[in-house]
Amino acid sequence: MEFRNLGRSGLKVSEISLGGWLTYGGSVGDDTAKTCIRTAIEQGINFIDLADAYARGDAERVVGELLPEYKRSDLVISSKLYWPMSEDVNNRGLSRKHILESVEASLERLGTDYLDIYFCHRYDEETPVAETVRAMSDLVQQGKVLYWGTSAWEAEQIENALGAADQYLAYRPQVEQPRYNMIDRHIEESVMPTCAEHGLGLVVWSPLAQGILTGKYNDGMPEGTRGASTSWLDGELTEGNIKKVRKLKVIASDRDISMAQLALAWILYHPEISSVITGASRPQQVIDNVAASGINLTDDVYAEIEAILA
Q1: What total of structural domains would you count in the chain?
Q2: Measured in whole angstroms, how far is the alpha carbon of residue 219 from the centre of its chain?
Q3: 17 - beta bridge partners?
Q4: Please, which residues bridge with residue 202 across strands?
Q5: Cα→Cα distances 183→238, 271, 307, Å
Q6: With contact defined as beta carbons under 8 Å apart, do 177 and 150 qualify?
Q7: Domain-located, residue 247
Q8: 93 domain-assigned
Q9: CA quadruple 21, 178, 287, 60: dihedral positive or negative?
Q10: 253 lies in some domain
């Protein structure tokens, strides 16, 4: 496993990380989830990404039950807040009240004294950004959070948070967590340059476009897949994208790697990326994803990929 700094901070995270979205505490049983997490740590992953909204706290609970098996300081544990956790009007968003109460709930579920990274899961239009920034900074000062960041924020919103932090001499956000993959490259226009300019790391989710970039839809719609059972992929599961994946799979096969590994290595080709958050419902998926760390694409191969994606 290779490691990278989280932006210009001193924190080092594994190039491949493990996320609990849609899986742990939910569609994947606790025993299987714990086996996947153990496998990830054995394979060198040190960064586990969670959120209170993942299975309404159960993803945090599953990881928390496993944490006593490991030295806490060896791991980088992150969580997020923003989405409603109950019907209560204040149990949502990025108000000071919700931030200070949510971190306590996450820490309790995880059974730990601190989070390495705490993300604002979306931008809150109803709360002044200065209120959010100062509350997150207070958590850093209290030692309950070591670094804080944003998730799925626009470049201007990140700039506003940085400005508020400087104005109030508060801790700046150190990382943004956006969606990014070969199909969805929206962050390249403004978010990625903004983060690079200000030294924020990027830890990206959905690197395989909900499975499209594994190649499993190349020959049709397998039963039981997200494409067959949900509408999440309607905008991206197109014949045009499938044709691209078929061509990309040839590049992967020529280099004796899987299509998924090529997609992960393509993301890691970008120096702005600190870590790629992957999901896994089976231990073998973890092992396969970890193998993407250390695959160094040459400029020629990257150009060949770009020609297909264009």
Answers
A1: 1
A2: 29
A3: 277
A4: 176, 273
A5: 11, 19, 13
A6: yes
A7: no
A8: yes
A9: negative
A10: no
What CATH number corresponds to the domain at position 28? 3.20.20.100
**Active-site residue set:** 54
Cα 202 to Cα 177: distance, rounded to the nearest angstrom: 6
Consecutive 10-residue averages of pLDDT for the chain (310 residues): 98 98 85 96 98 96 97 98 97 98 98 98 98 98 98 98 98 98 97 98 96 85 56 79 95 96 98 97 96 95 96
Residue (of 173, 177, 175, 91) closest to 139 by Cα position: 173
Which range marks the domain in which residue 12 is found? Answer: 3-209+273-296
**Domain assignment present for 184:** yes
Angle ∠(275,39,78) on CA atoms, nearest 5: 40
- Is residue 195 within 8 Å of residue 176, measured between CB atoms? yes
Cα separation, 211 vs 20, whole angstroms: 16
DSSP string, 22-61: TSBTTTB-HHHHHHHHHHHHHTT--EEE--TTGGGGHHHH
